[in-house]
């Protein structure tokens, strides 16, 4: 029961930290944070995971090991209240697990649950799902430990149950730390999505080749794209206007220098227009692209 109390305390504190992260991550770009606060949820998730590790895993496992080494005499305690509390917790946690499962099932799309947990861009929902899953399992283990202790007339099963619950919390903390650390260090988008974006760029009529391509996850369904491309020169040249300017220069009607300068300015404006149109097309085709930086190689 003490292990489940610590477990519930860790879960409650964790949910509060996740909520703080969710609220802060919704803040838009500012002068100090030009890319927004999307990574805030990963930071708070990481802090939450560390709390689960030290409090949930550390304290619970220590308590279980200490109880195992100091079993003492079994006193046949009244189990009415513990069993009622655990049964109620099992029902509540089971319902929350069902809701979390449906949410993750929608968000994961065609990916498997394992891949979404390892490579997804929203570890908050993963944290809730895993926490609830381990909470349900933890209640079942606690019930088993209490019941076996009564049957065997020894505290050993109860102590072992505490250790198992602590190890489950340690596993949860490890998964969450790994997932959030990966995103805080600037993880790239899903390889298949990157390939789709590259193919779209290469099929564009104005692009000859891609020389650099990078993506970074800024938050759930928020990506940053930085690419260097080479454009087909023919799309940057107004051939009709150049022919007219060349004819005027040959006829001695104008000074060649101003004409050439005007041609260069037109190319720059045309290039800027192409880039703006390309970025708008990319955002329309791939809504998760929040920030796009297209540069000319």
Span from first to last CA? 64 Å
Q: Which bin fits the share of residues in helices? A: 55-70%
The shape, in one word, is rod-shaped
Count of beta strands: 3
Determine the strand fraction and express it as a percent band: 5-15%
Q: Would you tell me the structural class of the helices and strands?
A: mainly alpha
Structure description:
The structure is a single chain. With 297 residues, the protein is mostly helical. It has nine helices and three strands, in the order αααααααββααβ. The protein has helices spanning 2-25, 40-69, 80-108, 113-119, 123-152, 156-184, 191-203, 239-250, 256-285; strands at residues 207-219, 222-231, 289-296. It has a three-stranded mixed sheet with strand order 1-2-3, with helices on one face. β1 (207-219) and β2 (222-231) form a beta hairpin. The protein is rod-shaped. The termini are far apart. The mean pLDDT is 81.
Supply the key terms:
297 residues; mainly alpha
Write a compact overview of the structure shown.
By secondary structure, the chain is mainly α. The chain is 69% helix and 10% strand. Strand 1 and strand 2 form a beta hairpin.
Topology, element by element:
Layout: H1 2-25, H2 40-69, H3 80-108, H4 113-119, H5 123-152, H6 156-184, H7 191-203, E1 207-219, E2 222-231, H8 239-250, H9 256-285, E3 289-296
Parallel strand pairs: 2-3
Antiparallel strand pairs: 1-2
């Amino acid at each position: 029961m003490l292990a489940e109390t610590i477990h519930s305390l860790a879960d409650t504190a964790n949910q509060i930290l996740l909520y703080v992260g969710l609220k802060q991550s919704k803040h838009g770009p500012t002068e100090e944070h030009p890319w927004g606060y999307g990574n805030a949820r990963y930071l708070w998730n990481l802090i939450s995971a560390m709390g689960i590790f030290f409090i949930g895993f550390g304290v619970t496992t220590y308590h279980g090991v200490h109880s195992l080494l100091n079993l003492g005499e079994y006193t046949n305690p009244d189990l009415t209240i513990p069993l009622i509390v655990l049964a109620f917790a099992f029902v509540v946690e089971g319902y929350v697990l069902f809701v979390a499962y449906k949410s993750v099932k929608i968000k994961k799309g065609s990916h498997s649950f394992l891949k979404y947990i390892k490579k997804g861009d929203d570890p908050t929902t993963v944290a809730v799902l895993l926490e609830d899953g381990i909470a349900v399992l933890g209640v079942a283990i606690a019930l088993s430990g209490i019941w076996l202790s009564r049957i065997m007339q020894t505290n050993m099963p109860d102590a072992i149950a505490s250790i198992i619950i602590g190890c489950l919390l340690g596993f949860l903390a490890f998964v969450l730390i790994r997932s959030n650390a990966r995103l805080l260090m600037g993880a790239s988008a899903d390889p298949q999505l990157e390939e789709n974006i590259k193919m779209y760029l290469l099929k564009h009529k104005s692009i000859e080749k891609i020389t650099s391509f990078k993506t970074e996850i800024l938050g759930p369904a928020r990506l940053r794209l930085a690419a260097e491309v080479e454009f087909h020169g023919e799309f940057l040249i107004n051939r009709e206007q150049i022919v007219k300017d060349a004819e005027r220069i040959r006829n001695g009607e104008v000074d060649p220098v101003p004409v050439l300068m005007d041609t260069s300015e037109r190319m720059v404006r045309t290039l800027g227009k192409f880039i703006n149109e390309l970025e708008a097309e990319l955002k329309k085709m791939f809504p998760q692209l929040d920030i796009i930086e297209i540069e000319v190689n």
